[in-house]
Amino acid sequence: MNDTPTTWRSSRTVFTLASAVLLVAASARAADEGEGKKYTIAAGKFELTAPANWIVKQPRVRIIDSEFEAPQAEGDDRPGRITVMGAGGSIDANIDRWIGQFTQPDGSSSKEAAKVKKLTVAGQAVHVVDIGGTYLDKPPFAGGGVERKDYRMLAAIIETTQGGKKTGNYFIKFIGPAHTVADNEAGFQKMIESLSAK
Question: Which of 18, 54, 24, 50 lies closest to 37 in space, CA to CA?
Fold first, then answer.
């Protein structure tokens, strides 16, 4: 005869089930955080890993190779958009064009407000740009557009080479509300640092 009180047995069962649920959830979360989303550039010659919590999206235009959506911060009305594409033009001209898409609320120079640095990752030159302000959001090669206040862009140009030969420049741009970009900044940096040759 089992003389364990019914109430105690029920409580123990609930506790065991709850523990199992928490364990499964924690394992799934850890696997998701560790897995990330791999994608390639330079015709598959290089690989990067995007944060696991970024959503893979269908690129809006054909010139974009890969596109992701970063979760929006509390209080922001839009998520962040990350695009990956190969493109021509000089490094400086493209950086100047990106900075030119921003104006500063106080009328100061966006070029002076921008932070530009050069890194070497996996033997490749990487130019990183960080600029905030009011962003002119418009499709490439189109007029008009929408001004979005308190926006920020993190962007990188990767100069890929293999065997001493250039294999193209690849642009990774993360644009969104400033708080959303700040919340995902570490993920963006980790993604750039994940660059590796295949």
Answer: 50
Residue 33: how many other CB atoms lie within 10 Å: 11
> Following DSSP, what letter does each residue of 116-173 receive, concatenated?
EEEEEETTEEEEEEEEEEEEEE--TT-S--EEEEEEEEEEEEEEEEETTEEEEEEEEE
Length reported for the chain: 198
Q: How far apart are the first and last CA of the chain?
A: 65
For residues 195 and 20, give the distance between their C-alpha atoms in angstroms, rounded to a whole number. Answer: 37
Question: Residue 50 has which token pair?
Answer: 């995007």
Give every CB contact of residue 67 below 8 A, 6+ residues apart in sequence.
56, 57, 58, 59, 60, 81, 82, 83, 84
CA distance 123 to 42: 15
> Cα separation of 44 and 82, whole Å?
19
**Distance from C-alpha of 131 to C-alpha of 98, rounded to nearest angstrom:** 9
Report pTM.
Answer: 0.81
- Rg value, the chain, Cα: 22
What the block records as the tokens of 159 is 């100069």
The pLDDT tens digits of the residues spanning 95-152 come to 999 999 999 999 999 999 999 999 999 999 999 999 999 999 987 667 788 999 999 9
Which among 92, 89, 53, 58 has a CA at the least distance from the CA of 70? 53
